[in-house]
Amino acid sequence: MSLLALASLTACTAADAPSPASTAGADAPAPFPESGEIAAGTYLVTGYTVPFEITVPGGWSSGEGAGLVKDDPDHPDDGAVFVIFWPADYVPTDACAWQEALVPVGPTAEAFVDAMTAQTSTASTAPVEVMVGDYSGFEFDHSVEGDTDIRACDTGRLCIHSDRARECGRWYSYPSERETYRVVDLNGERAVLAVGQFHDTTNPALTTEARAIFDSIVFVRPEE
To answer: What are the tens digits of pLDDT across the range 121-155?
Structure first.
């Protein structure tokens, strides 16, 4: 699912009452809502074999349980910042010339990092090792390469990665889009997490808030 689709889904349900956080007790976070605006609280995301907890302030919306989006009040309905956690199984070698060229990536965190940092038409920082709760991984920034004309790319999109072999799942539409990725090794399963913004004009307070949500994510090793 694209971020524009995620923003569209959340916009459709923004008028609904926020999904409440759990009242079962401090040690029992609520399941992460599938869609709509969500109440401030700590939630449990179960899309990977190892679940993770994420703490969200008010004003954010979920789409298909795959991420969070928040608008800038000065630019409503335009999607300002996001935190996402959906599968990424294919990475094109060239993000601009991606049609019929989505390359399957092995299951390890290293394989995804290598594919992303080698991708052309985009730019990455050198990956650094990080810990996300009890699990190790890598963190790097990803953005549009300076001279890339997105309008000249396949379907006018810069395809970053996908969970499908013939369709782009995550793409950039604006030259100012940028993300920070954390790619976590969950005992052989790869978890891909990202935080980012659509525009350079995004309110810095929103990017700080998005980063705080991103930093709140903690995978906890099950008790044996």
So the answer is: 999 999 999 999 889 999 999 999 988 999 999 99
What the block records as the tokens of 28 is: 């029992």
SS3 string, 18-73, reads CECCCCCCCCCCEECCCEEEECCEEEEECCCCCCEEEEECCCEEEECCCEEEECEC
pLDDT at 1 > cutoff 80: no
**Is 0.70 topped by the overall pTM?**
yes
Q: Which residue has the tokens 């969970």?
A: 163
84/99 Cα distance (integer angstroms):
23
Q: Are 127 and 140 in contact (CB under 8 A)?
A: yes
Span 31-67, pLDDT tens digits: 999 999 999 999 999 989 899 999 999 999 997 888 9
- Measured CA distances, 181 to 13, 84, 211 (Å): 27, 10, 11
- Whole-number CA gyration radius for the chain: 17
- Give the single-character DSSP code of 100: T
Per-residue pLDDT tens digits for 188-197: 899 999 999 9
CA distance between the termini of the chain: 35
User: CA torsion sign, 160 to 164 to 213 to 78?
Assistant: positive
The answer to whether the CB of 154 falls within 8 A of the CB of 177 is: no
